[in-house]
Design brief:
There is one protein chain. The chain is 31% helix and 24% strand. The chain is α/β, with parallel strands linked by helices. Strand 3 and strand 4 form a beta hairpin. The longest helix has 16 residues.
Length: 253
């Protein structure tokens, strides 16, 4: 449901009819008649189209443009974000979506604000997926990043599978550039735009992670890294980290 993928070839200037899963994906993107969106055909090419008709059973889209390159990065970035205060989570979702993040998982950590505390001030969590959808539309992405439910650090660690796992830690983190170079030295196709690279990126709250939390993450294979010597706000750190990863291994150039 995160992207509209068709099982046939399409071309510019044609109107196409969609049903089934592609229609569900269109609804997930909150499309309406007149909405402009990105869709992918059977050859993997991305097109732009405008919704001309929409009903419960079907929709028609007028295809008017073809992208020269895919709008989606070959890099899969899963961002674990400790809950910040105020409007910072919305900024993180918006900007990392524009940069091509795949999934965002809000975290409860020892020093983070709790979701209950956030919601008692002003209910915002219900808007997070909507913010990702709007940022996807603005950046012309084909895929909507999924903003999952808030979970504890321990629960989040249990979701990790194979891939590079990094954690921002201002105390004893290693050099990010060196970690990327060493890890991907055995996978040259990934560093040249190949598919398959998965990175779990964990960013703490203001005040950072505790040593016990870092110990838990290390036990699941996470490597602590730094982003230089300056202390960044959590939203700056998340956006910067995703941007660096896309530049080094993804589709930013």
């Amino acid at each position: 449901m995160d992207r509209i993928i068709l099982d046939h070839f399409i071309s510019v200037g044609k109107e196409i009819l969609i049903k089934g899963p592609p229609l569900e994906a269109l609804r997930f993107k909150e499309a309406r008649v007149g909405s402009i969106l990105t869709l992918t055909d059977a050859a993997g090419e991305d097109f732009r189209g405008r919704v001309t008709h929409l009903s419960k059973e079907e929709a028609t889209i007028l295809v008017f443009d073809l992208f020269s390159f895919s709008t989606e990065s070959p890099l899969e970035i899963i961002l674990f974000q400790a809950l910040p205060e105020k409007e910072r989570m919305e900024m993180i979702i918006q900007k990392t979506t524009e940069l091509g993040v795949s999934t965002i998982i809000p975290l409860r950590s020892e020093r983070s604000i709790s979701l209950r505390e956030r919601e008692s001030k002003q209910k915002k969590a219900h808007r997070w997926q909507h913010i990702a959808i709007k940022a996807m539309q603005q950046s012309r992405r084909a895929r909507v990043p999924l903003v999952e439910e808030c979970r504890s650090l321990r629960e989040a660690l249990e979701t990790c599978e194979d891939g590079l796992k990094i954690l921002l830690w201002e105390k004893e983190g290693g050099n990010l550039k060196n970690v990327l170079k060493e890890y991907f030295a055995g996978f040259p196709s990934w560093t040249s735009g190949g598919k398959g690279a998965v990175i779990y990126a964990m960013v703490g709250p203001e005040g950072g992670f505790t040593e016990e939390e870092v110990k838990q993450a290390r036990g699941k294979g996470f490597i602590p890294v730094k982003l230089g010597q300056r202390i960044l706000r959590t939203e700056t750190a998340s956006i910067t980290l995703v941007g660096i990863l896309q530049y080094e291994l993804g589709d930013l150039s």
